[in-house]
Amino acid sequence: MLKKNLPNLLTISRALAVPAIILSFYIENKYANSITISIFIFACITDFFDGYLARTWKVQSKFGRLFDPIADKLIVVSTIIMLVYKHKINDYTIIPSIIIVCREILVSGLREFLTATNVSLPVSKAGKIKTFLQMLAVVALTIDDYEITQYIGTICLWVAAIITMWSGYNYVIVGIKQID
Predict the structure, then answer these.
(1) Which of 31, 91, 131, 171, by CA, is between 20 and 30 Å from 106?
(2) 84 or 171: whose pLDDT is higher?
(3) How far apart, in whole angstroms, are the C-alpha atoms of residue 60 and residue 9?
């Protein structure tokens, strides 16, 4: 029973981590960044293991196919918004952040539309790379003690935004083909 449900429980735990991450941005002590990063990394690890375990144990589910990308979007987008709120993303780095948030909303809407038309929109390799780079950028930008981490975070955010546009374009093409 646990084997069958563990991947979905990991996905749910990632979504439930969102409020904890948001609240962690309001902690005002020397451990605040460490707490935020720890929760976020836990969520990222669950992203890897939920899919890996579901495939390995052959317990993939409709719930997982639907909710896994939603949980990814919730964790990344909410953390990016909090980084903007805390001015850790500002100036020119706001541009890739807006691109990422808008793409995630667009693809979520497309997935909903395509599901209603019985068309599957599987996660692409580019989508997985995009998510990894977004997560890496968030961790690097949350660490504000070192200039190099800010630089790495900014580069990862821009590269993720470029991949985000490219993979989003591919999703839009699939969606357009379904409109009669």
Answers:
(1) 91
(2) 84
(3) 12
